[in-house]
Structures are given as C-alpha cells and as structure tokens.
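ping. complex inputs:
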Amino acid sequence: MTAAPPADLAARLTGLVDALRSHGVRIGTGETVDAARAVEALGLTDREPLREGLAATLLHGTGQRPVFDAVFDLYFPRGVGAPRGGPADREDLRDRLAAALADDDAALMARLAVEAVDGFGGYGSSPASDGWSSYRTLDRLRPQTLLARVRDEVRGRDGAAGFGDRLLEDEIRRRIEEFRRLVATEARRRVAERRGRDEVARRAVAPSADRVDLLFAGKDRLAELRRTVQPLARKLATRLAARRRRAARGSIDLRRTLRGSLSTGGVPMRPVLRRRRPARPELVLLCDVSGSVSGFSDFTMLLVQALHDQFSKVRVFAFVNRVDEVTGLLVRGAADPEGLSGRIRAEATVTGWHGSSDYGMALGEFTERYAGAVGPRTTVFVLGDARTNTADPNLPAVRELTGRARRVYWLNPEQRSRWGTGDSAAPEYAELVEMHECRTVRQLSALAGRLLPV
Amino acid sequence: MFTSVDDVSARLAGTGYLASPAVATTVFLADRLGKPLLVEGPAGVGKTELAKAVARVAGARLVRLQCYEGVDESRALYEWNHAKQLLRISAGRDETWDETRTDIFSEEFLLPRPLLAAIRGDDPKVLLIDETDKADVEVEGLLLEVLSDFQVTVPELGTVTATRRPFVVLTSNATRELSEALRRRCLFLHIGFPDAELERRIVRLKVPGIDAALAESVVRVVGALRAMDLRKAPSVAETVDWARTLLALGAGTLDEDVVRDSLGVLLKHQDDILKAAAKLDLDAV
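pong. complex structure:
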C-alpha cells in the first residue's frame, strides 16, 4: 500500500472508526487511541498485520469481523487507481484464472480480480458518470463455468486416483466463491475512489448477521442466521437459568426461621428462606407462516425450539388462515431446519379456501379448537405482521386469549412506522396485547431475554 | 519482549506452536501495548496452548486460573491462612490484644491465589485465565481491577500494584457473553480453523512420522468436513488425532475403508457421521 503521511493517517483512522460505528460497532475513544498505537507499532509497510492489529484493538466480538473486513478494504485499499498494463483480453484472463484456481494461488487470484474489474466491470460512457460493478464483471467472466476445465486440469496433473479426488469439485467451487468475493471487494474499492469512501462504507457494506432485516434476508443470509440460533439459544438459556436462580431465593419463611432459632435461645441467627415450588412456565407460539413473513417465523420457531428444555411445555401452532399444531414437525425436523417451512405447508393444514393470511379467522379458530393449550401458566407469543388482507381482525378472539393466558406478546417483524398502513391491523391488536417491533436477530434476542417467562 | 511480528512467529514456532499471521500480530501488539489478550474460538484450536507457548518463549512462569461456575474471590485472589493464624494466636498467649491483631493480618499469613500471585514479584509471568465464560458475572468485576490497573486491593494490607506486568491471556468459548467492560480492556483475537497450508504444517510438526502426501489428504478431508455444516466441525486437535490414528493403523494413503472406519475420531455425533459418510460417498456405516 502507499505510505500515508501521519495527519492523513489520523483522519483515515477516525474515518474507519466512524464507518464502523455507523454499522453498529461500539467503539470508544480509548480503542481508537489503542488502534493508533497499534498502527505505530506495526508500521504501514505490510497490509495484513495492519488489518489484524486494527481488528484486535477495535473489535470486541467475532460477529463484527465481516463488516470490519469490508470497511478496512475501503480505507486501507490494496492499491490505488487502475492496474498497470493495457486492457485485458477476456479469454486470456479466463485462462490465467483457470490456472490460478488449479494451483489454489490466492495472491494471483487477487491480482486477477483487480484486472477483471478494470477490464470488464466498468459501465457508463463519460468519465464522470461511470462506475464499477462486480455483477457485470462476473457476468462477462463467468468463473463458475471454469469448474469442469479446472477439474480436468488438476486430474490430468495428479491423476484421478485416490480418495482426495472426490473432494476436488467442492474445493474448486469454494475457490471460485472466494474469487467472486475478491471481485466484489475490488469493485467496491474502485467505486469508493470515485464517490468518496465514507459514503460507500456506509451504504455498500452489508450489515452483520444480527442486524439483517428478517423480512428481507436472502437465502444465504437466512442460512447464516440459522447458524446463529444455537449460540444465541445457549446464551439466552444461561440468562434464563441465572434469572430463575435469583428468583428462587424467595422471601423469609418466618415460621421456620423462628423454629430454627430455638437452638440459639430465640435469637434468629439463620434466616430461612421460603422455597419456591419449581414451576417451569409453559409457552405457546402462534406463528404466521405465510410467504411474506416466513423467514421471520421460521427463525423464531427454531430459536424457541432450541430453548425448549427451559420450559415444561412448548407448543407451536402455525397458521395462514387456518391453524394447525406443528410441534411434532419441529421436534422431528431439529436436524434439518432448511425444509421446515416446506414441510409445515405440506403436512399441516394451514390454508383453507385461499392462500393469503387471515388473522381474524386463524385467531378465532385457535381459541375454539385449542382452548386447552392456553391456561394461567401459559405465555403466548404471536408472531406475524398483523396484515389481515382487509379481513375482520376478530378482536374478541384476542381478548379471550389475553383473558386466559398469563401473558400475551406480539412480535411484529415490520417497522413500527409502517404499522397501521394499508391492511395492517397492528394498532388495533397493539391496544389489546403488548406488541414489539422485532426486525433483526439483535432485537429478537433482546426481546426474548426480556419477555420470556422465568 | 518481541521485536517484530515475524519475531513472534519464529520464536513461537521454536517452541512448537505454529501461529497464523493474525495470532502473531495480536500477540505482538498485546506485548507492545501492555494489554490483556482475550482469545475466543472453537474448542481445540489452541487457545490455551498459545498462553503456554508465550510463557515458554518469554521464559516466564505460567500462572493459571481455571474458571468454573462458583469460582470466587478466595479462589481467584487471595485467602487468609486461618490455621496458621490460629496457631499464631495460641502461641503468643501473654501478648497484648493489639500486638496479636496487627500481626495475624500480615504478608506471612496471606495465601496468594493466581491473580495476586501473577502481579506480585519481579519475575516474568504469563497469567492465563482459562474459560472465562464459565465463571459467574461477579468474577468479571474482580478481573476488571486486575486487568486495567494491574493491582489488587487487600483491605488489611492495602493495594498491591504490579511492578512488572504479566502477559495476560483470557480464553473463552463464548458460552456466555462476556461483559462489554471486560472486552474493552482487552485486545480481541478470534482463532478460527487454520488455512490448509498452516494446518498441513501443524500436522507434520505434531505427527512427525507422517509423509507429506498423507498429511495433505488428511487436511483436505477435514477441510471438506468443515464446509459441511455439521453440529460439531472437527477442530485442529481432532485433525492431529486423526493423523496419529491413521499412522497407527498403518494407512499409507486414504481410501474409502480407512476413512469410514476412523471417521469417529473426527466427528463426535452420530448424525454428523452419517451425514459426512453420505456426502463423501462412503457406503453405509
């Protein structure tokens, strides 16, 4: 990288810190000072130690690392401007890429990504309006079509014998994925040079997994979210256990304290606490699984399922416009969360005459058919966006539910400002039950920690 | 203690710990900035080993505090030697009360536990606080004073401040979220699974009899397993175990039978084994 003069370096460092803060990484001034000391100790000659050093001083957890890496690439870029040399030839570049993939040569792949974006990623005609796009680059280069060629090349060289051969395709696929990532980074860097890196750092860097909007998360993002379920559930479980332990130290049992004081001549030396009867609370989940919110309810169901040994009974009901119990499906599907929503739709009756969600019908049917599921020890969570497709919201059913259950909470994956717009019945429901906005994993875990019964 | 990042890698390698660039950089900074190092990562990637290796490199004494649920002040900081205090009192029966009282709360009757032991004395020390996430929240409060100012307050004696700061390593498996205050005082290092090249070197270092081709296949299979989204991905410790097993079985190369029979060394859940066997096209286990 280019050696920056110190004044510029301080500005660059604070810019980096600001960008990280805007992505929700909490960094204090002390850490920024530490980061500067780290830069001083490491020097600017080598980029990778610098990256690790800044990460060590600025970050506090693993989840923040992807955001950090993307922002770091913008503020401390690998190079400046376009690569030297003339415009690359597409076939030639593909040949060299194939060789790099076959050799698993990371350094060469990084150089090729730079060339590829420069050669094929530009769009726009006049110098002032053009930009760089990883999508265009990859569309023209098509690295995924190199798979068969690279595989044959490696086989021809090493011979197709041996156990390792069956791993080869997956390995090459992972290398191609890595190349795509490099191209994306490079395109972001080129755009940043043109538009100012502060803006790009704020907009073009994907948020960390726990801040992704659950309604709009793509498929690979959901997979990543699912992987956060286990650690999250464990964390919540310890928190619940600790809270339970504290709650178990009840008030003083006067009768037993006085009886115990007989041996000390009536002086109550040792207060006896009343033991609480250990009663595990029951939980009922009522989930909208219609297409628009399925990502959210899938995720929440998995989380509660993972927590299930904290409760004496967890029952999960799914609905679109008819209600059916899916507790059994969740237990059997513990090992395979991928196909969960598909299985629910195939094996449970959640739709009646039409396919759009109807909260009024579903809630009414629930209070009728599953009246026994809700009692004074039950906490009910309703998960959904409260969009009833202009049908009757059926408020009496909700009233009946709140009357019977210990607590009822509603988690709504929509932005609070959109409640009540269009066909949303959220305000009406919110008057009867406590409704919370719950759009991201971060919000969900905070809410779960607060609302789950002890 | 170290002159450069490369110096860290070289000297750690000298004791048999092969560090990734990230690890070497962070150790270098922890030493240079005098800050504690919080190491997180899956089990079996060498978090505790790192502390031991640093101690060996620095010629320092390793003071270890193993955390568990219920570890408290008297286990972590110091205790008074009550038996000795009683002996002292009964030995001096004709003294006045004031003499006795001041006497029994002195250095002589103090039992230093790891945290106090680590900050007293002038010899170099590495303090390893292992599995910090297993300890209760109260212990974290205790650590804050020690880690920010390297001092411990004993009410009867006053404050003991370190004359020579120990190199501190905290490890955590993230079973519990550590407090923000504690994290702020530390450099943060996540040790993940090493890249293929580094892992090959680790295998060849830890299993000397293995030949290069077999080490390479071992690492490739482990890499493929880690990409599979299993309940418990195999860690470096398991890779090394597997390499040793293969060597003991006398397997020169990997084939279907060998892998199928020894998959249990790598994977610790039956459903993981079934899943891996299916993906690797092994016949039914």
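The interface with chain B takes residues 26, 28, 30-31, 34, 37-38, 41-42, 46, 48-49, 52-53, 55-57, 59-62, 65, 162-164, 166-167, 170-171, 174, 227, 231, 234-235, 238, 335 of chain A (CB under 8 Å).
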